[in-house]
Amino acid sequence: MLNKTKIYWFFQIAGWLMYVVIVGIFNILTGNVLTSELIYSLLAIFLIVLSIAHGYRIIIVKLNWMRFSIPQLIPRILSGTILSGVLVYLLKSIIIEWVIVQNQYVFNWQDAFPSIISWTLLFLIWSLLYFLFHYVNNYKKEEIKNLKWQAAKNEIELNKLKSQLNPHFIFNSMNSIRALVDEEPKSAKEAITQLSNVLRNSLLMGNKKLIPLSDEMKLVNDYLSLEKTRFEERLLIERDIKSGSENFLVPPLMIQTLVENGIKHGTSKLPKGGVIKISSKIENDNLIITIYNSGVYDENKPTETGFGIVNTVQRLQLLYGDKALFSIKNQDNQVKTELIIPNQTIL
Predict the structure, then answer these.
(1) Count of H helices and E strands in the chain?
(2) Domain co-membership, 156 together with 101
(3) Sheet-wide strand order for 325-331
(4) Residue 276 contacts by C-beta under 8 Å, 6 or more apart in sequence?
(5) Mean pLDDT by 10 residues, the chain (347 residues)
(6) Phi/psi of residue 54, each to 5°?
(7) If you compute the radius of gyration of the chain from its CA atoms, what whole number of angstroms results?
(8) Domain with 15 in it
(9) Domain tally, the chain
(10) CATH code for position 323
(11) Is residue 61 part of a domain?
(12) In 77, 116, 145, 316, which residue has its Cα 20 to 30 A from 209's Cα atom?
């Protein structure tokens, strides 16, 4: 891949060479004969403009003109192009007249002014192209830098959200086990084993951005087993995981968090308990996960619906932007939570 210096010299030489060739062709078409004097004159013009343009560029770099705003650049560019135009005219006239043609050079302002204006305009075009290239190049670099910064920020936010999940989950699980210790020691031991499985799996999943739905459901099933031990007949569990959706990638601990949220803020508060229903299907290359739980969702008090909802919305936004959808509402005397996750379209 060409570096900036090689790109500069390529366009510098190619551009001025093309200009000289066009001037030579124009001279021949207007009746001039291709003589050695014409060839040497064209070569002299090429070397002069190449040297002046490069000297102009050295001034731009040394004085760091790139740091200036456009209003600050305008007078500098105008001064630089006028000076370049004057220098090219003087060097061209002296070298071609004295060295190549070997005539006595006499300065004539009437002939010099239009020629200087022409060279100034030519260097003005050169300046515009030069600064445009650098502004576009710097803009791309800034965009890449911003994207990298945003990706790093998103990664930090995701890790922060994941770190918030585990303490929240452990706290609720330990409360469930504590309720069993005195009354049902055997069930408590089984619950501790289940909790260790859940923690081990959650630690393994926490290092990943996405995992298969089948792995997430293993964690969910272990969690539900813990809650079933606690609530017994007060908790009914229904699952409907459609074939083909098991390998779909989902954010780790997200479904488990929503299930936990449904039990904590719905089923556990009902004297007779309730039902947790989990279903999944694929439509239009999107995974649709639906969770029903007994209870009532108070739409006027969203802050009381628990940590799980806030966490889910933030993680979906960081991972998918507006391509994922989350909703929670009351439906048929139940609370319906729905996730629509696109197929591996992560930001």
Answers:
(1) 8, 7
(2) no
(3) 235-241, 274-283, 286-294, 334-342, 325-331
(4) 224, 235, 236, 237, 238, 259, 262, 263, 267, 291, 292, 293
(5) 75 90 86 80 89 91 84 90 90 77 66 86 90 74 62 58 57 74 79 80 71 90 83 89 91 87 84 91 93 85 59 82 90 92 66
(6) -70, -40
(7) 37
(8) 4-107
(9) 2
(10) 3.30.565.10
(11) yes
(12) 145
Could you tell me the two tokens for 73? 């650049």
User: How far apart, in whole angstroms, are the C-alpha atoms of residue 58 and residue 221?
Assistant: 69
Instruction: Please give the C-alpha separations between residue 284 and each of 99, 287, 290, in angstroms, as whole numbers.
Output: 78, 8, 16
> pTM here?
0.52
Rounded alpha-carbon distances, angstroms, from residue 123 to 53, 117, 304, 309, 327: 8, 10, 67, 61, 61
The pair of three-digit structure tokens given for residue 126, joined into one six-digit string:
């050169």
Cα separation of 120 and 78, whole Å?
A: 8
By C-alpha distance, which of 329, 334, 188, 327 is closest to 267? 334
41: its two tokens? 């004159």
What is the C-alpha separation between 235 and 27, in angstroms, rounded?
A: 95
Check whether residue 326 and residue 230 sit in a common domain. yes
Rounded to whole angstroms, the Cα distance separating 20 from 25 reads 9
| Residue 325 · residue 234 · CB < 8 Å | no
Are 322 and 307 within 8 A, CB to CB? no
| N residues, the chain | 347
